[in-house]
Design goal:
Elements (H helix, E strand, L loop, with lengths): L1 E10 L3 H17 L4 E4 L14 H11 L7 H13 L2 E11 L2 E9 L5 E6 L5 H5 L10 E4 L1 E7 L6 H9 L4 E5 L9 H13 L3 E3 L2 E5 L2 E6 L1 E5 L3 E6 L9 E2 L3 E7 L1 H4 L7 H30 L1
Parallel strand pairs: 1-2, 1-10, 2-3, 7-8, 8-9
Antiparallel strand pairs: 1-15, 3-4, 4-5, 6-7, 9-12, 10-11, 12-13, 14-15
Helix pairs in contact: 1-3
C-alpha cells in the first residue's frame, strides 16, 4: 500500500492555517498515488504543551477539547478524506468525552466514515495536572496494513508495543511530543521498539511555528528492524527534493517494501510469555496487599 507521510510545520493556535496546510498535503499525496495519509500530532492547534505556561495550557485544554467524531477537526478530516479519496490517520488531538479529556489519534476512510480511535495510555504528571485521563484499550488501525499506535509516553513502555504486536499490528506508528529541545533517547527507544517486535516503526515529527518564527522541529523517523534507520525527514537542514516552500514535505512510502518480510512474531509464544509474567506480578501484588492489610490490623 502506498502511503504518504506529511512532515509539516504547524502554527500554534491557528486552526485555519493548519487546516489549509493539511488540505494541500493530502491533495498532493493523492496526486502522487497515495492511498493513505498520516498527519502529525495536534494538527488543529499545534503542539501547544511545551510552548505556553502551565496555566495557559490548562486553559487551552479546557477550551479546545473536541468531540470525536462529531467535532470540527474530525469533521474536517472526514470531508477531506472524501474529497481526496484516501484514508487519513490523524495524530492525537485533545478529545472531550463526557467529563473526561484524552489525547486521541483516529482514522477515517475514503468514504468519510470514522474507523477507530486510540487514546494515549501512559500519562506523565503534567498530563494529569492538565486534567487528562488515560486510555484503557490497545488499538490498531486496519487499513490493509495494521497500524499499532503509540502516543508520546507510550513509546517508553515496551509492554504496549508488544501488546499491539500480539494483537496483530504489522506496523508501529508513534506520535512523540514535540519539545523545545530534542530528546536524544527517542531514536534509541524507537529503534528498540522496532527490533523487539520485529516490526517497522514510523515516528511522526514536525515543526512548530509561532507567527513566522520556528520554535522547534522534531524529525520524522522510519525504522526497519533489520536495516535500522531508513529515513530521517526534516524541513530545516533536510533533503530538498521533496520540500515544498520549506513548510511542508510529503514523503511517499511503498509500505509493502518493508512489511513483505516475515515480521509477525510467534503470537502464541508471546501470549504465553505475557501470561507467565502477569501471573507472577499478580501473585506478588496480591501478597503485598495482604502484607499491608496484616500491618493495618
Amino acid at each position: 500500500m502506498r502511503i504518504a507521510i506529511a512532515h509539516i510545520s504547524l502554527k500554534l493556535m491557528s486552526k485555519k492555517v493548519n487546516f489549509e496546510k493539511a488540505k494541500r498535503v493530502v491533495h498532493e499525496a493523492k496526486q502522487r498515488g497515495a492511498k493513505a495519509v498520516i498527519l502529525p500530532s495536534m494538527l488543529n492547534i499545534g503542539p501547544i504543551f511545551s510552548f505556553y505556561s502551565p496555566a495557559q495550557v490548562k486553559s487551552i485544554v479546557r477550551n479546545h477539547a473536541e468531540r470525536i467524531p462529531s467535532g470540527p477537526t474530525a469533521t474536517f478530516l472526514s470531508s477531506l478524506a472524501v474529497s481526496s479519496g484516501v484514508f487519513i490517520i490523524s495524530g492525537p488531538i485533545i478529545e472531550r468525552a463526557g467529563p473526561k479529556v484524552f489525547l486521541t489519534s483516529f482514522a477515517v476512510s475514503p468514504a468519510g466514515s470514522f474507523l477507530k480511535r486510540y487514546r494515549k495510555i501512559v500519562l506523565n504528571p503534567i498530563d494529569r495536572t492538565l486534567g487528562f485521563s488515560e486510555g484503557r484499550t490497545l488499538e490498531f488501525f486496519d487499513l490493509k496494513e495494521k497500524y499499532g499506535v503509540l502516543i508520546e509516553g507510550d513509546v517508553l513502555f515496551p509492554e504496549i508495543a508488544r501488546g499491539l504486536t500480539i494483537l496483530g499490528s504489522t506496523v508501529l506508528l508513534a506520535f512523540p511530543r514535540i519539545e523545545p529541545a530534542f530528546d536524544k533517547k527517542l531514536r534509541k527507544l524507537l529503534e528498540a521498539r522496532s527490533i523487539e517486535n520485529n516490526l517497522p516503526i514510523i515516528s511522526m515529527g514536525g515543526m512548530v511555528k509561532s507567527q513566522e518564527q520556528t520554535l522547534s522541529e522534531l524529525p520524522t523517523y522510519i525504522f526497519d528492524p533489520s536495516e535500522g534507520l531508513l529515513e530521517e525527514i526534516l524541513l530545516e537542514g533536510g533533503k530538498s527534493e521533496e520540500k515544498k516552500e520549506e513548510d511542508e514535505r510529503v514523503v511517499i512510502l511503498e509500505l509493502q517494501n518493508y512489511t513483505q518480510k516475515s515480521y509477525t512474531q510467534d503470537q502464541k509464544y508471546s501470549y504465553s510469555l505475557y501470561s507467565i509474567i502477569y501471573r507472577n506480578l499478580k501473585r506478588y501484588l496480591e501478597g503485598k496487599v495482604g502484607e499491608t492489610e496484616e500491618k493495618e490490623e
